[in-house]
Amino acid sequence: MAKGLFMSTGLAVGTGIMTLSALGGIITMAIIFQVQVGHNPPTTRVPITTTPVIPTGPPPDLRLPRNVIPQRYHIFLRPLFYHTLTNETIQSFIFMGNSTVTFECLNKTRSIFLHSKDLTVKKLELTRLDNGDILTVNQHVNESTVSETDFLEVKLEDDAVLEPNRSYSLFADFEGEMFNDLTGFYTSTYEVENSNETRYLGATQMAATDARKVFPCFDEPDLKANFSLTLTHREGSSALANWPKKRTSGSEIEIDGEKWVVTEFQSTKKMSTYLMAFVVSELANTGGIDYKVWARPEAITDGHAKYADTVANKILNFYESELGLKYPVSKLDHIALPDLAPAGMENWGLITYRESALLFAEGVSSTFDKEYIATLIAHQLAHQWFGNLVTMKWWNDLWLSEGFATYMSYQGLKHLEPSWNTEDLFVVNEVQRAFQVDALTAAYPLSPSEEEIQSLSEINGLFDTITYSKGAAVLRMLSHYMSTGSFKEGIKKYLKALEYESANQYDLWTYLQEADTNIEEIMSTWTTQAGYPVLTVNTGTGDISQERFLLNSTGNKAVVWHVPINLLKNDGSEVHDLLLDKAIGGPRPELKRDKWIVVNINCTGYYRVNYDRGNWEGLMAQQKADHHAIPMINRAQLIDDAFNLARGKYIDVTLALNTTKYLKNETEYIPWNAAMKNLKYFILMFDRSEVYGPMQTYLKDQITNLYRHFEHDTMSNTVPKNHLDQYAQLEAVTVACKVGLKECIDTATNMFNQWKENPYNTTTQIHPNLRYNVYCYAIADGGQAEWEFAWEKYLNSTIAAEKDKLRYGLSCTRHIWLLNRYLQYTLDPTKIRKIDTVSTINYIASNVAGQALAWDFVRGNWKHFSEEHGGEIKFLGDLIDGVTERFSTEYELQQLKQFQYDSDLTGDSIGSASRALERAIERTQINIQWVKDNKDTVLDWFRSETK
C-alpha cells in the first residue's frame, strides 16, 4: 500500500514536494463498476464501532481461533446501483452474493468463527465434504455477530461437532449496502468530459480488515486461501479481477428486463483476503495483451496513461531479474480510480491508484508528478513479491511488506532513471523523515508484539512513517553492512523459501544470516526497540558512546543498538566495518581527527552523530573554505543532525544555526532541503512572534544567490535539465517567495496575471514545475478575484495533478473569510473530493492565517470526520498531525488535552488518530519548552547576523 498518503510511501516524493510548498502557506481493493445514473449515492452511514483483532480463541479474544483453516473460497457477486420495481426506478446501491468457503478442521469444535461486518447473512449451510452430510447450524446469523470483533459465530446444533483432519464447506447467502465511505464496497462518481453525465462507480477497499464487509471470510493476513470469483454485471460493462478471466457469457441473462453478463475468473494462488480485488466498469485501457493501464476513456484517448504503461513494464522486468522470481500472475492491470483512500493499493494482479498517482498529462503534470507516479508504481510492483507472495503473519510485522516495498521502489527508480539520484533522495525523503517521528517517546518499535496490535485502530495506526520510512532505512543500512550482493542473495532465498506463505521478522533474519555475523542479534535491536541512537564522538580522544536520541530529554535514553559505523577523514581516507554494540566504546584511533572527520558516510546508518566542539568547528571551517570537500549527503546530514541535536538539548542552538552560514554558496538541492526542513520548524515556532522579522531578513540574504542561480530559467518559464537542479530551482522559488524576495513575488504574480488574462493561450501557460508556487504566492498577494479565478479553474479541470496544484494554491490566501469558505467546502464532496479532504485542511493549517481556523474547524466537525472517514487507514491521524504542527503555546496544549478528554467523555471516536494525538501532545510540550529556552538566543543570533 502506498503512503500517500499512506506514502507514504507517500510516497515520499509527493510529500517532499509538499514540504517545499508548505513553507508557503500526504488500498484499495477495488470492485468497481460503472453505470450512468441520474441519482445521488446514499450518504455514508454512521459507522459501526471499529473492529478489534488479536490473541487467539473465541470471544473475548480478538484473533480468530485456529480450530479451522480456510483453503478455498468460491464467491458470486451481483452489484446493483438501482433496480426497477412497479415501473419506478429506485436508487438501491446494494450488492447481492453468496460464497462457499472450504476449510480443514484442526481441532474438535462445535463453533466456527469467521468475520462478517455490515452484511445481512440470510442463509448458512455447512457440509462435510467426504460424505456430503449437511450439518445443522444456527440460522439466526445476524444475531450471532460479535460487534467488538466482527466475529460471525456459526454454531452446530444437535450435538454435532467438526472432527479433526476432515474438510468442510460453509455456504453463505448475503446482501450488503454500498456507501461512499471509501471502505468495504463503496460508491464513487466522475463526470464525463464535455457532457453533463455523471457516472457512478462501486469500489471496495479490503485492506486492512474490510474484506469482511464484502463477503464472510477468515479476514486475517496469514489465513491464506485460493479465491474463485464470478461476477454478474450489466451488459456494456467489463470485469477485471486479480487473476485472468476464465470465461465470459454473452448477454443471454435477463433480470428485471435488463441484460446481464457473467464473468468467471481463474482461481488465484494462495493469498490473503486483503489482497482480493475486482472491477466492473466501462473504463478504457492502453491496449496491451497481458499488461494494461485502465482509466477514464478521455484520459486514455489523451495519452495520460502512456507514461505509466512504459514505466510499469520496465520496473516489473527489473524486479523479476533482481529478485530471481518471475511475477506469478499471467496478467497485470493498473487502474486509475477517481476516489481511493490511499495513493495506491497493491492488489495482486490488479493494482489500484488515485488518478494523480497514475496519470501523467504532458504539459500539465510536472517533473515531480512524473517521479511520484514512477515511485508509486515501483512501490506497488515491489509488493507483488513483498506482501503478496510472502505476507506478514500478523500486522505487527507490517514493515516486512511496506518497508521492503519502499526500499525496493528506490532500486526500481534507480534502474528506470539513473540520473534522478534516487540514493540521495532516499536520505531526505525517508531517513530524515523517519527521524522526526522516531525521536518522540510516543514512537513504537518497527515490530511491536502481537499483543500490542489488537484493535482496528491499532492496525491502521501502523500505516505510518515508522513502518514505511524507518522500515526502508533499516533495510538500506543492513544492505550496506552485509554488502549489497550478500543482502540480495539472502532476500532471494527468503522469497523462494516462503512463497505463498507468511513470515515474521525472524524468518527474514534466518535467510539473511551470514556465517560470521549474528544478523538476528544485530537487527533485533533495530526492530524490537523504539527510536534510534545518537552517537557522541570525541575526536580528540577517540572515545564513542551511544544513547537513544529523544527530543524530549525526560525519556529513557539507556538503550543500546548494534550500530554499524563508517567514517570519512579530512584527507579523503575512509574507515569501514566498525560495530558499536555497547553504550560506551573506545578509545578507537580511527575516530581521532586531524582537522575533522564525518561519521556515517552518505547516511547509510540509521543514527545521528554528535561531536566534540573542535570537530564541529573544523567541519564548519571546511564548509566555509570549500564545502565540496564534504560529500553532498553529509553536508545535509551535518545540518539536519545539528538542528535536531539542538532541539534535543545536546548542543547549543547557535551551533546549529552556524551550520547554515555557508548556504549562500550552496547550489545543491539536498543540503538546502535539509536546512529548510529544519528552518521550517523555526518558522512554525516564530512566525507569530518578533523573531520572524530578522529571521526573514537572514533567509532572504541566504537564498538570494540560489534564486539568482536559477533566475534565468524561472523568468523564462523553463526549468533546468538536471533532475536535482529542478528540485533546487523549486526550493529557491519556494523560499525566496516565502521570505518576501521582491523579484520572486513579482515573477509569480506576473505569470499568474498573464495566465488569468489569457487562460487559453499556450504562451501564457505556467510551467508545471512552477505552478505550486506561482498559484500560491499570486493568490496570497492577491484578493478575491485571484481566488475565484483559481477556484473556477479547479472546478473545470479534469486532470488530477492540476487540481492538486490549484487546491494547494487556494489555501494560500490571507483573507480569513475565503479560508473559512474553503474549509466549509471540504464538507461537500461535490466541491472537494473526500480523498482530498485531509490534505486540503492541512494546507490551510500550514498557512499562518489559517492555522487557528483549521484547528477550530476540525474540533467542531470531529464527529463528522470520524463517521465519514473513521474507517480510512490514515485519515484521522494525518488530520491531527497536520493541524497541530505549529502548536507551541500552553493555550494550544490545553486545547489538545481538552479535546482528548472531551472525546473520551462523549465517546466520540479518536480511533486511528489516538497515536497521532499522543504525538501531538508530546510534540506541543516539547515545542513549548524549546521556545521558552531558545527564543531570546535565536532572536539575538538572527539580529547579529543581519546587522
TrEMBL record:
Main localization of the protein described in the UniProt heading: membrane
BP GO annotations: angiogenesis; cell differentiation; peptide catabolic process; proteolysis
Gene Ontology CC: one annotated term: extracellular space
Cofactor: Zn(2+)
Textual note on the cofactor: Binds 1 zinc ion per subunit.
Cytoplasm found in the keyword field: no
The protein's name: Aminopeptidase
GO MF, one example: peptide binding
Origin species: Alosa alosa
Subcellular location, record wording: Membrane
Record family assignment: Belongs to the peptidase M1 family.
Record's subunit section: Homodimer. Interacts with SLC6A19.
Gene3D superfamilies (UniProt xref): 1.25.50.20, 2.60.40.1910, Neutral Protease Domain 2, tricorn interacting facor f3 domain
Entry binding sites for Zn(2+): 379, 383, 402
Domain Peptidase M1 membrane alanine aminopeptidase: 310-526
Enzyme's top EC category: hydrolase
